[in-house]
UniProtKB/TrEMBL annotation:
<feature type="domain" description="ABC3 transporter permease C-terminal">
    <location>
        <begin position="288"/>
        <end position="422"/>
    </location>
</feature>
<feature type="transmembrane region" description="Helical">
    <location>
        <begin position="331"/>
        <end position="357"/>
    </location>
</feature>
<keyword id="KW-0812">Transmembrane</keyword>
<keyword id="KW-0813">Transport</keyword>
<feature type="transmembrane region" description="Helical">
    <location>
        <begin position="286"/>
        <end position="310"/>
    </location>
</feature>
<keyword id="KW-0472">Membrane</keyword>
<dbReference type="GO" id="GO:0098797">
    <property type="term" value="C:plasma membrane protein complex"/>
</dbReference>
<feature type="transmembrane region" description="Helical">
    <location>
        <begin position="395"/>
        <end position="415"/>
    </location>
</feature>
<dbReference type="InterPro" id="IPR025857">
    <property type="entry name" value="MacB_PCD"/>
</dbReference>
<protein>
    <submittedName>
        <fullName>Lipoprotein-releasing ABC transporter permease subunit</fullName>
    </submittedName>
</protein>
<keyword id="KW-1003">Cell membrane</keyword>
<dbReference type="InterPro" id="IPR003838">
    <property type="entry name" value="ABC3_permease_C"/>
</dbReference>
<dbReference type="InterPro" id="IPR051447">
    <property type="entry name" value="Lipoprotein-release_system"/>
</dbReference>
<dbReference type="GO" id="GO:0044874">
    <property type="term" value="P:lipoprotein localization to outer membrane"/>
</dbReference>
<dbReference type="GO" id="GO:0042953">
    <property type="term" value="P:lipoprotein transport"/>
</dbReference>
<dbReference type="InterPro" id="IPR011925">
    <property type="entry name" value="LolCE_TM"/>
</dbReference>
<dbReference type="Pfam" id="PF02687">
    <property type="entry name" value="FtsX"/>
</dbReference>
Amino acid sequence: MSETAAATAPAKGAKAFSRFEWMVALRYVRARRADGFVSVIAGFSFLGIMLGVATLIVVTSVMNGFHRELMDKIMGINGHAFLQAVETPFTDWDDVSARTEKVQGVKLAIPMVEGAAGISTQFGQSGVLVRGVREKDLVRLPGIAGNVKIGALAGFDKAEGVAVGQRLAETLGVTTGDKVSLLIAKGAQTPFGVAPRIKAYTVTAIFSIGMSEFDNVFVYMPLAEAQAFFNKDNEATVIEVFVDEPEQMDLFRARFEKAVTRPVIVTDWRQRNKTFFDTLQVEKNILFIILTLIVIVAAFNIISGLTMLVKDKTQDIAILRTIGASRGAVLRVFLIIGASIGVVGTIAGFLLGLLIAENLETIRTVLNKAFDANLFPAEFYFLSRLPAVVDTREVTVIVVMTLVIAVLASIFPAWKAASLDPIEALRHE
């Protein structure tokens, strides 16, 4: 009788997952030098599961962070719903915006004049989207309020200047007090046709939304000035609406139609950004599937490691069976071994993933300084920082999925061990 089997003889009537089964499983996991290769495979299985779980948690957290940050930035400056006039010019914008703002659940309704223009200084030029808004609306705009870095919005209507994004200011080489020139193709009507319009404005404020694409394209000017500049005589082009619950836009559409008596076209953020957010979700799903393969590969390592362990411990298994261990006991011993690798690897991966996800921006900053690199450049990813949002539900799915895969991977080798015929096994020893 082998030393392991003799020292761990089962007590009669031992219950499932008894102390005896755990003792045998732990002895097999702590392999001697002769069984070192099995331990190496078990180690790789552990590392594979740990890295797979950690990577899944970090990647899903980053994708969640992207979704939330982009949602906040886009909705913080673009609104949740958009009301545009049909049939007649939008000259009653003041009344419509007041009615809309009284709708239950509406936080803000901003009338504005919107148009594309060219902007230039002696240091550079760029294409921009000019928005004419009232001062009282601009200071309440979620993407602008609290994000003015230089200058101020006080007296914005009377100053007749413009507020520009920080990246645009850097491109043009301007700061507050400097002049910028705005140009549009359709200006005044002359005997020779429509002449381009160009006008110089003083930069009164510089804001930073935190999304490079927006900080490089938006220019705000007083509503009355924008109406004159774009030939919109007391008109607005759109009313942007911000609501408490953006996910309930169908409900708000019905409320808008009831509150606004004139004909309008209502569009919302889902229509304007559907392709963008759908693409983000598809990328997240694909990455989840690809990274799950790491866990599956680790599960195959568990299968191969347990299979080799069963082959190596054939004599021990046969002796255990002859001294009273049931097939179920042998099955559970090897299930414990495989599940233990999965559980420990999953817990380690869970802790590592949370640690990285919660400190991702710090890690990026350290790596940038250490390697003099620019990981996650804002001009490519639209955000000025690397976001990460840990979703409890998704983390739970990852952990449970990994544990199930590890247990399933252990079943076949454990069944093979339990199916060994002790007589046949000892005959060849």
